[in-house]
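Supplementary Methods S3. Input chains for the assembly prediction are listed below.
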Amino acid sequence: MNEIIETILNHRSIRKYEDKPLTEEQIEIIVKSAQAASTSSYVQAYTIIGVKDKEKKKELARLAGDQTYVENNGHLLIFCADLHRHELIGEMENTEVSQSLDTTESFMIAVIDAALAAQNAALAAESMGLGICYIGGLRNNLVEVSEVLRIPKHVIPLFAMTIGYPLHTSDKKPRLPFKHIYHEEEYQPDSSILKEQLEDYNETVQQYYEERTNGKRQDTWTSQMAERFSEPRRIYMKEYVQKQGFDKK
Amino acid sequence: MNEIIETILNHRSIRKYEDKPLTEEQIEIIVKSAQAASTSSYVQAYTIIGVKDKEKKKELARLAGDQTYVENNGHLLIFCADLHRHELIGEMENTEVSQSLDTTESFMIAVIDAALAAQNAALAAESMGLGICYIGGLRNNLVEVSEVLRIPKHVIPLFAMTIGYPLHTSDKKPRLPFKHIYHEEEYQPDSSILKEQLEDYNETVQQYYEERTNGKRQDTWTSQMAERFSEPRRIYMKEYVQKQGFDKK
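Predicted structure tokens for the full assembly:
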């Protein structure tokens, strides 16, 4: 196994960091690593906002569900799906582009581009001995987040990433069985096989929690997921996304 | 610079491969690397389909816009946003989840999860000396692709990835200026600064094409993008995505 695969497999989210900011050089390496990712048809449909201001980080931490590590870290990045620059390009090139920016396809391109870039940033940071955590909680309240970050139309903050010098390690949560995630030749058509794999996985996850909590935590993955999806969350999202000029048709 | 950042920065898409299939072990390392990526609230909302069958690859190559490297490579992966297993979990746990799977938020989670996993897969492959290419052209015709791969409801094939032993190298296309992609504290509110940065970048891109084509190709990035977005593409996407049970409310 090479060093890169080792780093990839060794990933765990880090939620407590030393009070030591990243250097400008580290930030630049991380962002340039993000930019080196593939991008659909060269569109580069994302922007990364770096936040250092203490008050702003505090406010974002509150909006993301009071997660203290959003405030306390070495650096905070916000990954945004971005077609605003393509709107500006329409003006520069005197071309009508708004019909095209509005589509679900363009929305998907921008979300995928931003995520590919983010994962490169995560690995670049981890390769330097830093820890990271993705903050999906940023989507709790994108209307307010957009005010704090002065987000224009055709931009959506998708998630944040905290980066810093780790103050703890954590366990790697077991992933779904290989054969459940990886299908050969076509999507596994037999639901009973998929359900059996999930039952097997439940045992793995249950054992993982039991060992970590001395038997106190007993839940399975499917029970967690059923709970997670029992009520729709962030139901304002469709309206927000469309107000930002995405995914309209 | 460490080996990982070197691999990340050294990425280029490879479109011609030796006629040499990946081993099962290589495939497993790549998929397990994908699985090691962060996933929103542990939902693991994606599936990877590996295609070896010659006829099926040929058919997918045709659907993706006659790209021969979709047929001729060491292995072909299809990355799918997937909430089908969460639908099954609803049955297993006797919980009503359909209201939650339908939301734009759940759609975004699944797309982001799949893309993070894909970028890990790409880097794992590249770290082993393999080349990769993302195939967004798969989205040209997802209705037919879904038939070929027997895609159920709550699953969307987002893109493919060709992997194999490279038969060429290629140049790295210059990326947007660091200061254009990376904003500090808030989204850059001054459009004239953004436009200036794009003008500067145009010179870089123009020079890149001129050098590669002995002066034959002259276009700028903004002209490419204006052309790219002058007409909406894949306008069937919204209907398809919603038919698959995503992004409905």
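The beta strands of chain B are 46-51, 75-82, 131-135, 155-164, 182-184. Chain B has twelve helices and five strands.
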